Amino acid sequence: MIPTITSFEKSPDRGQGLARDMRVRWAFEEVGQQYDVRLVSFQQMKEPAHLDLHPFGQIPTYEEGDLTLFESGAIVLHIAQRHAGLLPKDANARARAISWMFAALNTVEPPIVEREMGMYFDRDKRWHQERLAMLNDRVRARLSELSRRLGDNDWLDGEFSAGDLLMVTVLRRLDGSGEVEKYPNLAAYVARGEARPAYQRAFADQLAVFTAATSKG
Amino acid sequence: MIPTITSFEKSPDRGQGLARDMRVRWAFEEVGQQYDVRLVSFQQMKEPAHLDLHPFGQIPTYEEGDLTLFESGAIVLHIAQRHAGLLPKDANARARAISWMFAALNTVEPPIVEREMGMYFDRDKRWHQERLAMLNDRVRARLSELSRRLGDNDWLDGEFSAGDLLMVTVLRRLDGSGEVEKYPNLAAYVARGEARPAYQRAFADQLAVFTAATSKG
């Protein structure tokens, strides 16, 4: 049975692959699992039919037979547990990779999302610059710690894992800010993720959705 | 082998059980697993020895023989996967419970933490009230969605799970704000979690650390 995920009908980032379906697409590509995509509009996301799938009215969701999942982290973990390629076989290494999954989503992503929201929603406030300095400090603290731990390694803990997959997508949200570039090892790490064939296939697929939506007007 | 976790030497919340070791303590108590606690000071948390355990210099960490884990979500999942009591046996129900773990930490907790940080760090700013209104709106949106989904159920999806454990600890961070109380079913849900004997044992243990630290001066 081929699972179906949901994705934005029209990507708010204009196909830059920053929406959370990108993580799930990339995971599917890494493990070689086919999937279907159902596109939803912003309006549909807040309607009861979608809220039944995703209580918080977001994308992506995952449907496979009787099973419905939400939260990109949970979906990537589900894919990683069912297929080889995203988690080490050794039990301890596997648990450590899962630590990195949670670290990406609960420790590194929140200050990055806050910075994004500050750039978007506070831009016209008189206190924008003062607050942006605080937001940047929080992001830089996390990047500095992450850079220290990564060191000269290719990936966060041994082979590429679902932890790296999520971390790379989280760091990509800083594209254009110049923040990641201050840490050459982190910039190389993100580039290493983006160079993976599975990433490139996933990126092309989500971009094609945006291109098609745009050409239709 | 008895695992060892780290916890604040002196709880910044004065023993209210809002630090992230509470989640792990509660999980251990639910499954009946003994554990040891090593207390760390704020200074020690930023020193190399602790950063080797936790790249972001936080608590809790989890050590068991050769295995070191960090991130409360990952540690709770590790405990839940090794012991009965925190995840359903049915594979689909198990995957759904894990969705709720990620939802608690990646969707519900971030706006609650932001609100806390706003209360703490922006309190003396001239724009505090304007910003607090925005922060409250974000928290209320999530609570409203969560309340809608919970409905009249005792727990988020069938039996009590690690997803509920994390969600209750996340909602407890709003204690004193009056926000959860606006949704009677959510307030009852938190009370139901707090009434569990395992919760009460974990709470008493973390409070005892604070009480001892205080009595020592």
Task: Give a summary of the structure in a few sentences.
The structure is a homodimer of 217-residue chains. With 217 residues, chain A is α+β, with helices and mostly antiparallel strands. The first copy, chain A, has helices at 21-31, 42-45, 48-53, 72-82, 91-121, 128-150, 162-172, 184-194, 197-215, and strands at 4-8, 36-40, 61-64, 67-70.
Explain this structure to me?
Chains A, B: It comes from Steroidobacter gossypii. Chains A, B: Residues 90-215 form the GST C-terminal domain. Chains A, B: Residues 8-87 form the GST N-terminal domain. The structure is a homodimer of 217-residue chains. Chain A has helices at residues 21-31, 42-45, 48-53, 72-82, 91-121, 128-150, 162-172, 184-194, 197-215, and strands at residues 4-8, 36-40, 61-64, 67-70. By secondary structure, chain A is α+β, with helices and mostly antiparallel strands. Chain A has 2 domains: 4-85 and 198-215, Glutaredoxin (3-Layer(aba) Sandwich), CATH 3.40.30; 91-196, Glutathione S-transferase Yfyf (Class Pi), Chain A, domain 2 (Up-down Bundle), CATH 1.20.1050. Chain A has a 4-stranded mixed beta sheet. In chain A, a hairpin with a 2-residue loop joins strand 3 and strand 4. In chain A, helix 1 runs parallel beside helix 4 (72-82), helix 1 packs across helix 9 (197-215) and helix 5 (91-121) packs parallel to helix 7 (162-172). At the A-B interface, strand 4, helix 4, helix 5 and helix 6 of A face strand 4, helix 4, helix 5 and helix 6 of B.
